[in-house]
Amino acid sequence: MDTSATACDITLPDPVTAFSTFASASWTLVVQDEANNAVVNNITVKRLDPATKINNQAADIMISTNSGRLSFYTNGTDWFAA
């Protein structure tokens, strides 16, 4: 994501749909700070549904380090970031 001018938000898709569509292909979603500016303009990765969890937490997750990146995968219920 380009954080050169402003903070960014991205919303993860529904984990049920993502799992049924992409699981057989070992699908992973990668979000990365391509502008090397996330320490100033954070990237917030949001959940489509507030009940969905990321890393077992019912909360959004933020990238706040320059050139930071997270890889996301789903088990069909929740999201996990590595």
Descriptors for this entry?
82 residues; mainly beta; 3-stranded antiparallel beta sheet; 1 helix; globular
Task: Walk me through the structure.
With 82 residues, this protein is mainly beta. It has one helix at residues 15-22, and strands spanning 8-11, 29-32, 43-46, 61-63, 69-74, 79-81. The protein has a three-stranded mixed sheet with strand order 1-3-4, with no helix packed on it. Strands 2-5-6 form a three-stranded antiparallel sheet. A hairpin with a 4-residue loop joins strand 5 (69-74) and strand 6.
Placed side by side, the strands forming the largest sheet appear as 1-3-4
The major beta sheet can be summarized as: 3 strands, mixed
Radius of gyration: 13 Å
Distance between the termini: 17 Å
Topology pattern, helix = H, strand = E: EHEEEEE
User: Unreliable stretches, pLDDT < 50, 5 or more residues?
Assistant: none
Measured as a percent range, the helix fraction is: under 10%
Into which percentage range does the β-strand content fall? 25-35%
Number of domains: 1
Count of helical stretches: 1
Overall structural class, as computed from helix and strand content, comes to mainly beta
Per the principal axes of the C-alpha atoms, what is the gross shape?
globular
Mean pLDDT: 93
Number of strands: 6
